Structure prediction request, 414 residues.
Amino acid sequence: MSQLSFLDKLLDGVEVEWRTLGDVAKIQRGASPRPIASFITDDERGVPWIKIGDTSTGSKYVNSTAQKITKEGAKKSRVLKKGDLILSNSMSFGRPYILNIAGAIHDGWASISDFQSLLNSDYLYHYLSSHAVKSYWLGKINRGSVSNLNADLIKTLEIPIPCPNNPEKSLEIQAEIVRILDTFTELTTELTTELTTELNARKQQYNYYREQLLTFEEGEVEWKTLGEIAEYSKDRISFEMLDETNYVGVDCLLQNRAGKTLSKHAPNSGNSTKYDVGDILIGNIRPYLKKIWYADCSGGTNGDVLVVRPTDPQINSRYLYQVLADDKFFEYNMRYAKGAKMPRGNKPKILEYLVPIPSKEEQARIVTILDKFDALTNSITEGLPREIELRQKQYEYYRDLLLSFPKPSDEKAA
Prediction:
């Protein structure tokens, strides 16, 4: 099946006309009244004042604003109606949004309005989000003809309008394309919500069982300081033995006990602190981020990461990891941390942290239970972005397929 066969079936032989946005819509730059502060109001009678912070990358709509502008200020701005589109002038942001409210925009936005008789707002949104349009903007920028996504450039973009001589039929075709693409977006949102809910439930279970399993009655077990059963690694390792996979800087330790990622800054000279399999690496900057990793290989790190190495043969290293991954340890660590803006763990005080020492059999039982929850939580944590990425690629594939209308030049070439 050719790539255009589904689109051909949808069009059912109707003509597709390509027209510039400047021909079919009003393209304008927003306006910022001066001074801005004198026009901002919380009065219910004010006009919504649309800023970047009122948009979300997960939504195509602007539904509300944090601030409003007075009617006097709105006269010196650009007021749009519900259904109009806005587009950031900045290429770094540069994606469209549909207004679900009437509101005023500042000069960081460009507006697309007065097109409703020819174009469905959501159809236009999907087209402006396509790879073809992004390539068009970038091509203009890279050739140096413009420096940003301004109103004049937006006017030159060609938009495919199916069945232009029959507006009702045209809008029906556009609406069907929107329905299909919105379905993919809704599926992605539903999947994300479902997996996030499942992940949060697993985390709550994990925390509950960790709390239960690591709570002991007075006199039930022996307690020792961390310094009595472990030490900081004093070993060194040459940069020649390190790469992105086994060099662990604090930047590649993930928050909330999520392990680590590949390093982007492996050293190219000197020696680093060595860690071995079974050591516990703890991010020592901003302890509240709960960065901790149980080493499954040998490698190196720097002074911003603590390498805790068990020294007592009665201690199961994985059990010690579970104790140090507990919220109580990070709360203790923050209590004695030094510095305000970027607190750093107090290394001597960390070694004073009290660790409960049940029998080796009990340690093994605790590890077995908590590791199962750890595996379940991590599988969802790792699978969530993969599933979202897959759904997004599906949406992008069908979006580009459904919006790949032939141009007259293409038909002549064929």
Q: What stands out?
A: The chain has a mean pLDDT of 87.
